[in-house]
Specification:
Elements lengths: L1 H32 L10 H14 L7 E4 L7 E6 L8 E6 L18 E3 L2 E3 L3 H20 L8 E6 L9 H8 L1 H4 L3 E4 L4 E5 L2 E11 L1 E10 L3 E2 L8 H13 L9 H10 L5 H9 L7 H7 L3 H7 L2 E9 L5 E2 L2 E10 L5 H12 L5 E4 L13 H15 L4 E6 L5 H6 L4 E3 L4 E3 L11 E3 H18 L4
Parallel strand pairs: 3-6, 3-7, 7-17, 8-18, 9-16
Antiparallel strand pairs: 1-2, 2-6, 4-5, 5-19, 8-9, 10-14, 10-15, 11-13, 12-14
């Protein structure tokens, strides 16, 4: 009875701090939404300075709060909460920039913070100023409570993840590597909760991402007058090669992350899909099950390297035979897939030596981060505490985040966000972007406890 009473008293004592933290986080969220941070007309430095001002006002020493950048409007905030020196720091990252948003495309001004019908609206609400606000509010609460982590906590809020020429994480690693050194990184731009039909069904944890690489396919001909056509035509030759590529699939291959993804997703999937997920985990994998799962664009992208034509250009005049035909093929390669092998496979599938295949630039490999109990255990424990019987499902991002720069620099990265979103209503980069109010506040509680757990006080 005494233990129960003590628990009740402790819970009651924490309510005012939680309420104040929620109010503060909402204010920060509003401030970030209402600072335009698009590449065309926005200012990431303004947002970084606004967050720096809050940290300094809360007592963070000026030497531990820096705004740095290669361009006047591309500033990055790097702040440090000093610990007891009990190990390498933990790095928390989120990007400040957002994709373009035109007033004419939205129901309201995208740079006005709006709370309506249980949602927070605004450009960046989901991607990812909500998570940035959670990080800042959490550090402010920890500072106010006088909590001292066992090891330093580093927060980096950065520019140009969505595009632009001044990617913040890349620039900081090149110019200020010492500020970003960490045992591992929590990247809120990956992972997060999934809602289906009003029910919270899974908490995803990003531990790998595919590697982006474009290839240019090109055919050249002498050309000539269109009134004297020949069978040799650059457009036809390229089109035939692309038709062969359209029918081709790279072989499926699982890694530690995707194997665990399908293993844990099987408990969430209906009938045949669940059976198929279990069947591809066998040795050897069941080919029929693999083929059925591959009919889903998402599962297909998790299973294999993908290459798809995304742009075409050809000809130079309406009344002339084409002298050139070219296509861009965008590949999202499995993390350990060599670019040279992908190029060779593409050349083989096109089956035409007159179609040249040239990489548009060097790949940026992003090795998977090991799924250690140090990360999985607290995420699973806190997920159960806050949301009940919701499984934690590791995922490989089929796109790319700033985590790739850190993984390449030797820092393991884990995509963790406490924000739950409806998988059938994803509005990131789109019109009337929003997140549920409840999800935002739950994420705040989740991240506060997770950060304390990952770097326990002495």
């Amino acid at each position: 009875m005494l233990r129960l009473l003590l628990s009740v008293l402790l819970a009651a004592a924490s309510l005012p701090a939680q309420s104040a933290s929620r109010s503060l986080a909402r204010d920060i969220f509003k401030e970030l939404i209402e600072i335009n941070t698009t590449d065309s007309s926005g200012d990431c430095t303004k947002a970084a300075e606004a967050m720096a001002a809050r940290l300094r006002a809360a007592g963070f020493p000026s030497e531990d709060v820096k705004v740095l950048g290669p361009h006047p409007k591309k500033g990055n905030l790097v702040a440090r909460l000093r610990g007891a020196g009990g190990g390498q720091p933990i790095l928390l990252i989120a990007h400040l920039d957002v994709v373009e948003a035109r007033r004419s495309d939205w129901s309201f001004d995208p740079f006005t913070f709006l709370e309506k019908d249980g949602f927070f609206y605004g450009r960046g609400a989901q991607d990812m100023k909500g998570d940035a606000a959670v990080f800042v509010a959490t550090l402010l609460r920890l500072r106010q409570e006088g909590w001292r982590p066992r090891r330093d906590l580093i927060l980096a809020l950065t520019a140009d993840e969505e595009g632009g020429g001044y990617n913040g994480v890349h620039w900081l690693l090149e110019r200020h590597r010492g500020l970003m050194g960490a045992a591992f990184c929590i990247n809120a731009d990956s992972g997060g909760g999934q809602i289906r039909k009003g029910r919270q069904v899974a908490m995803t944890l990003g531990a790998a991402e595919k590697v982006y690489l474009d290839f240019r396919l090109e055919v050249t001909n002498p050309g000539g007058h269109s009134s004297l056509p020949t069978k040799e035509n650059a457009i036809y030759r390229l089109s035939e090669g692309l038709a062969r590529l359209a029918k081709f699939d790279f072989p499926p291959r699982l890694n530690q992350v995707t194997r665990m993804f399908f293993e844990r997703s099987a408990s969430l999937a209906p009938g045949q899909e669940a059976n198929d997920m279990k069947a591809i985990l066998q040795s050897p994998p069941d080919a029929a099950a693999m083929a059925r799962l591959s009919q889903s664009a998402y599962f297909n992208a998790m299973l294999r390297t993908t290459c798809v034509a995304t742009m075409l250009e050809a000809g130079h005049a309406r009344n002339a035979l084409p002298q050139r035909a070219a296509a861009n093929v965008n590949c999202r390669m499995l993390p350990d897939e060599p670019a040279e092998r992908v190029r060779d496979i593409l050349a083989g599938v096109l089956a035409d030596p007159k179609i040249t295949v040239t990489p548009a630039g060097p790949p940026r490999p992003s090795p998977p981060s090991p799924l250690t109990r140090e990360i999985l255990d607290p995420v699973e424990r806190l997920t159960r505490k806050l949301w009940g019987d919701v499984p934690v499902v590791p995922v490989m991002d089929t796109g790319a985040t700033d985590g790739l720069y850190l993984r390449r620099a030797g820092v393991p990265v884990y995509g963790v966000s406490g924000v739950f979103s409806d998988v059938d209503d994803i509005r990131a980069h789109g019109r009337d972007e929003r997140i549920p109010v409840r999800s935002f506040y739950d994420a705040l509680d989740f991240m506060y406890e997770l950060i304390k757990s990952l770097s326990a006080a002495d």
